Structure formats: structure tokens, C-alpha cells
Amino acid sequence: QVQLVESGGGLVQAGGSLRLSCAASGRTFGWYAMAWFRQASGKERELVATINWGSSSTAYADSVKDRFTISRDKNKFTVYLQMNSLKPEDTAVYYCAAKNNAWSTYDYWGQGTQVTVSS
Questions:
Q1: Are 68 and 82 a contacting pair, CB within 8 Å?
Q2: For a Cys staple, 6 with which of 30, 35, 109, 110, CB 3.0–4.6 Å?
């Protein structure tokens, strides 16, 4: 069993920055990748960024490319999302997730953390 706990959300003005963290506990080995998703009110969940746990290679949604950075600390079993130049449209609940295989869906999810960007 894996538990993921996000933190770092909050209220920030447009143009500001926030850093989200996702700490894992439980079975913290054998992951293939972790990711950050977000879901704005009334919208579908969106994949924001992914990171390969072993190689640390990353990928981003076009909407956040060059503004957000995903990283991981293998020793702390933690993944981060550094969010810069925030826009009101980045307002959403942000979730971290983990999966065991390249071909599987994300198996484990955190409870989410609210990010609100005011204009």
C-alpha cells in the first residue's frame, strides 16, 4: 500500500510562485513514474507533468511548459512541482499520483491540495 500526501497549496497573486510537495509512504519502491494532475471546478482532470522515477526524465502539458518544473528526491520519496508565473487559469485542486508500470494507469493518488491564483 502506498500513501501520497500533498502539501504547499494556497492563495497567490498572478505572477507569483508556489512549490507543491508530495510525500510518499508505505511501499516506496518499484515505481515507474509519478505525476501531477489538476482539476479545476467544472472541468476534467488534466495531466500537468510527469517524471520517470528512475531516469528523472520529465514531460509537461503545453499549458505549463516553461513555467512549471517537476522534480523528485529519491531519498525522501518525495516529488515536487515548482510553479512560477502563475496565472488565474492555473487555479485548481492539484493531485500527485504514482504508477508501477509504463503501460498502466496511475495506481495511487493523493488527496489533493488547492491552488488559487488571484488576478
A1: yes
A2: 110
Counting every residue written for the chain, the total comes to 119
pLDDT digits (tens, 9 = 90+) for 42-55: 999 999 999 999 99
> Phi and psi (nearest 5°) for 75?
-70, -30
pLDDT tens by residue, 59-89: 999 999 999 999 999 899 999 999 999 999 9
Nearest to 99 by CA among 41, 44, 51: 51
Q: How far is CA 84 from CA 45, 87, 102, in A?
A: 21, 9, 29
φ/ψ of residue 88, rounded to 5:
-55, -30
The DSSP symbol for 119 reads -
